[in-house]
Amino acid sequence: MLPLPLADRYGRVATDLRVSLTDRCNLRCSYCMPPEGLDWLPTDQVLTDDEVVRLVDIGVSRLGVEEVRFTGGEPLVRRGLMDIVRRVHEAHPDLEQSITTNALGLARTAHALKEAGLTRVNASLDTIRRDTFAQITLRDRLDDVIAGLAAARDAGLGPVKVNAVLLRGHNEDQAAELLAWALGEGYELRFIEQMPLDAQHGWSRERMVTAEETLALLERSFTLTAAEEPRGSAPAELFTVDGGPGTVGIIASVTRPFCGACDRVRLTADGQVRTCLFAREESDLRASLRGGASDEEIAERWRTAMWGKAAGHGIDDPSFLQPDRPMSAIGG
Question: Can you list the domains of the chain with their CATH numbers?
Fold first, then answer.
């Protein structure tokens, strides 16, 4: 039986599934959550390992999902991560599995994750200066992140992509420094515009470092040339650095939205379908799972949720409202 895809009213088809495994995190990045943390989801509301594996299987077998990325919070704090990756790989050995992580625990888990079936790693790192890292994350853990990235690279979890957010008054003057370091280490750096997804609801367009500003900062030190390869549904606009082979990406979610080519769908740690990072509506699959629904019934509920996906995130619309859930509870 051929899968019936996760299509929406605008002709887009979701093949990239992002699964949040937890809303918990061991950093306190200022653009994500307050210093004291948040009220975490009660354990009984979080999907079990079996439920995660079942939903991924439904996505792949019945809905045409082609790749899965496990996110958080911080997915490495989920005790069942290794087993989830292994079980998904055993069921679907050709499926690409990746994680988005702060890399704190990668030094001790990268090789085991590779053996379990993980394909690739995306890591968040906004600076390579110890003092700036501590200011942004409220943790003195830069060495652990650097070691984790190296372990992922050495384990063959590549290409290792590094995601960076520039924060006005904190690290925007370090953009070129971060790129030079990433190129030297063989990592693919992506600068992401800060999005209105912080728990404190303190985001403002005026304080956001835009894609244009980021490019201008980089071009003081490098020659950037727009990549010739078509972008497709990839969120990053790629630029060749100093003639190549290295590249840098700009993900301009706010000022250059790419909603028209979006191929992503998200599951929160408590089993809610989110069709967009900025959606204010969710569809509950956990209730279907725990209510005895069949795989096809769950798949049909999922398809219905996707059919209602909006044309775009609407950040520029005067009526835009930031989602109630922050990024840590949605999954990136």
Answer: 6-330 (3.20.20.70)
